[in-house]
Design brief:
Blueprint: E1 27-37, E2 40-49, E3 52-60, H1 61-73, H2 93-104, H3 116-131, H4 140-147, H5 161-172, H6 181-227, H7 235-306, H8 312-381
Antiparallel strand pairs: 1-2, 2-3
Amino acid sequence: MEEGSLSGMSSGASTPEPQAPFTPKFNVRLGDRVTKDGDCVKFTLHVSQNGLTVQVLEREYEDFEYLDHCMTTSQPSHGLIIPPLPQRSAVDPYNAEIQSKRLMGKGSKTLIADEFHKDSHQLQKYLELLLSHPVLGKNEKLHDFLTLKDAPPRTKVKKGLISRLSDSLDARKSSYPDSEEFFQKERDWVTKYQPAIANASDAFNKITFAQLRIGHQLEQIVTALKLSNCPNDVVHNKQFNIINCLFHECMDSIKNETEEKANKEDIMLGTVQMLWNHYIQAESAMLLDRTCLMVDYQSCNRALDKAKPNRKEAAEKAKKEAEVAFEECSDAARQEIKHFQRQRVQEMQDSVEQYAAYQLTSARTTLNTLSQALNQIKAINL
């Protein structure tokens, strides 16, 4: 291949025909039972097959971390977008206090309770994404994770200096122009979309945290109102106490509704935005991996053109291996991206629709609570 033809290089393999929809071998549900012993948090998994429960397991977050490591490193082929593992919540008192002050304000002495329901929801989604993937869903490590009573032995994985240097060199290749328009457009889109979804996720989290702070302030108002009762020795005091009681009960209901609203909205839209924020990063990593294969393929072509007769055979072999790896990655990546984008758009759309409908429902609930309290107070005055 001539030097000038490298920029127009594309994978020679044809895109495979769409396969029949993949059916997950297992279904998994994370139960409400979550146990905590110091820094160790155990989640209960209900694994079923054909509608029948086959296993009830306990797994620690570190088990999920090791599963994620295995799914990332044990795949024989390039071009896959690996579903991202949710971040671990703060479980020790020190980090929980830091997180609470960050969310509730530096002056707040309130500690946010453990959000195990949120962690369970995110980990269940993570497993569902793995199980529904036509390649990852067949992985033996995933099968062992869901079928063995005791979690598979995990080893501590450390990134060495050579690995970090390699990642740094690979990252520099992200600026190389792609040889195919489809992938170049996807790379351009990821570059623009990734900061946009990250900003949207951060902005939504600020709304959720603001609602939690409002709930905390309402709790303080309720406490103050309860302490402001007067002795029932005169008619006016008695009437004031009745009105005060109705008012603080109303505020207490609004507080509970506000906190419930924040939690439901976080699950409904916040976790979805966070998921796709991390998922976009996974796609970006896959595209970088393919770019590295493309650069290697180009380098092998140049080396073959310049190879001396006694090294021609070795250069031809290296070029062929690089070509096969690049073409296989491109075919897999093309299918992954199409599936990824369909799933992303559908889930984001469903989430936004649910969020919008819930806004109307919660607003009506709050209006009804305030209206009832107002009517009761007016009746007393009459």
